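User: Teach me something about this protein's shape.
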Amino acid sequence: MTGALKNKTLLFVGGGIEAVPGIRMAKDMGLRVVVSDYNPQAPGFAVADDRILASTYDVEATVAAAVEFQRKRGPIHGVMCLATDVPLTVASVAEALGLPGIPVESARLAMDKLAMKERFARDGIAIPWFQEVASAEDLLEVVRQQGFPLVVKPVDSRGGRGVLQLREGGDTAWAFLEARRNSPTGRVMVERFLPGPQVSTESIVLSGKAYTPGFSDRNYEFIERFAPNFIENGGELPSHLPNSVQEQVRELVDQAAASLGIQNGVVKGDIVVSDGKPHVIELAARLSGGYFCTHEIPLNVGVSTVSAVIRLALGEPVTPADLQPKFMRGVAQRYIFPIPGRIRTIQGVEEARSLPGIEEIIMSARPGDVITRPENSNASAGMVVAVAETREKAIALAQQAVMIINVKTEPL
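Assistant: First, the predicted structure itself:
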């Protein structure tokens, strides 16, 4: 495969720290890698062969920059993103350059949670009850009619920003304003909160069929501590759900991908299993963040969804056999949430890293950084990934490593 890719150029839209492992993988496959990002100090630029300065969320600017790059610097053979919620930008670049990719309309639906849910409702996909709300007064009326608990969210945010639990006694006016503040288009929606275990999935769609090697139980042990925000504390694989329920989840993801019109590509599912039935919370048309695709899935089943997406982006063949689990190991990820304040010291990282089974420790915070109360998925100071023969042992190991790492803060 490397020989076939040696003279090809792949564009990564987004050069954040979580994209770096994927960029390195593409380079290891023999590709010339170009990264586009608005931040001149984007970590991806340090490992890329070339760069494009353009906002990942500015579709027109990125398309124009990619077209200009191709005119001046040579052909781009594929475009993708990793851990950056910009499928519309990716699809638009692919369309402009005549490259493989999902339809622009599919990407547009994936970026607009309200339009996505309306499409799912039309096609009979299992989802929570939902409704758009135009004002705090509208939200209050929904509460009167629907009761609690509810979830208030921006229609088009990312990374959990502005996604809030609304319970008895909650401030509906504040919840509406906070969700709207986090929506680029100022739109807000409300959903019924469905109790039950939540899972993250990652699937590769080939000729209209979704194959799901990535299947993780999401950890919300801090849901009360950080309420009303939804703050996830990593996850664990393999799932504890019965095989029959896991198969229902896979079938639901397959149906949801078809509803969005994705025939070949990647979909990341956020699924809740309530009363024994899976429902789609959201479906993203991109590779996952949180090191799920780059670390957890390969460690768990030996499958690289990143490699598959790279090949799809270049029009190279990917087969169902490429996505079949090669083994099954326990994997656990946990985040590090220090006491809010300014970081004075970080101790114990190397000691934790030396524990058998600790595969990765990534500290995103440094001494001098300010730690605030978590409000979205980028709230932690670092994360740990552990692997063992069982999920229970992996969980214990990850928790042990987190306890060893001591991030000391001082009040501001």
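Now, about its shape. The first strand starts at residue 9 and ends at 13. The chain has 13 helices and 19 strands. If you'd like, I can walk through any region in more detail.
User: That's plenty for now, thanks!
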